[in-house]
Each structure stands twice: as C-alpha cells, then as structure tokens.
C-alpha cells in the first residue's frame, strides 16, 4: 500500500511538472518563422469557404503568410490592432490580429494599401482569423 502511494505521488509530481512546462512554454517567434503557406487573402478565404474541414486540416495552427488589400484597421483589446484584408466576399475577410508589441508597426496601415502579413491560422468563424501577426511589407 505504501509503495502504491509513492508511485501515485511520483506520477502526480511528474504530471504537475509537465503541465507547468507546457503552460510556460514560449510561443513560436512568428517574425523569424518560415511560413508553412504563402498565398493571397482571397485564396485563403476561398479555401475555407469551399471546404472548411479540408482547410482546417491544412492551415490550422500553421504559420501562414497572406498578401492582400487592407479593408479596415481597428484597435483591439489590450493595445492590439486588427487588420482586415479583402477577399472575394463583401461580408467576410481575413482578420489579422496584432498583439500590443506588433501593433505599432501596423498602426500606419491605410485602407486600400497592399500588404503582406504573417500569422498563425486559428480557423474560420465568419472570417478567417490569423493571430500573433507581424507585418512583412
């Protein structure tokens, strides 16, 4: 009985250690990461609109570099910035979410400007969403 208690305690300690490691693991540096995919914002949106399941399997949690025309720039929570890129749809786009550290670089973007942005794809709600974005050009 005493040995079983020791084994359970060791397993719990190992579980806590792994959990803390994963919780504190730093995010991938998107600015220096090689993109898994490079495509136009309209093509990324079309892939999700055509076959969302296949697009999820292909793009989810991958670094994606998109090029497109800025539709809208707006402030986001906690000092971040959201940039929406045009697609073929009048009602949906590709939302690129910049955190506070990267927002300053993207703050000067204007509607109608051609840009290239790199971020991690989190899928599609109404729009395709990229997080932790960095401005490439």
CATH superfamily: Nucleic acid-binding proteins
Q: Which word captures the global form? A: elongated
Please tell me how large the radius of gyration is. 19 Å
Query: What is the CATH T-level topology?
Result: OB fold (Dihydrolipoamide Acetyltransferase, E2P)
What's the domain count?
A: 1
| Largest sheet: spatial strand order | 2-3-4-6-5
N- and C-termini, Cα separation: 64 Å
Structural class: alpha/beta
Q: How many helices does DSSP assign?
A: 4
Can you name the CATH architecture?
Beta Barrel
The proportion of strand residues reads 25-35%
Unreliable spans: none
H/E topology pattern: HEHHEEEHEE
Main sheet record: 5 strands, mixed, barrel
Fraction of helical residues? 25-40%
Which CATH class is shown? Answer: Mainly Beta
**Could you tell me the mean pLDDT?**
89
The total beta strand count reads 6
């Amino acid at each position: 009985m005493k040995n079983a208690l020791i084994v359970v305690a060791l397993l719990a300690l190992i579980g806590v250690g792994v959990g803390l490691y994963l919780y504190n693991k730093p995010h991938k540096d998107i600015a220096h990461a090689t993109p898994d995919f490079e495509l136009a914002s309209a093509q990324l949106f079309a892939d999700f609109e055509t076959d969302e399941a296949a697009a999820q399997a292909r793009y989810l949690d991958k670094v994606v570099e998109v090029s497109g025309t800025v539709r809208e720039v707006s402030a986001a929570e906690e000092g971040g910035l959201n940039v929406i890129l045009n697609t073929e749809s009048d009602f949906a786009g590709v939302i690129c979410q910049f955190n506070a550290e990267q927002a300053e670089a993207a703050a000067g973007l204007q509607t109608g400007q051609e840009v290239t942005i790199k971020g991690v794809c989190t899928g599609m709600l109404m729009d395709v969403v990229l997080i932790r974005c960095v401005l490439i050009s």
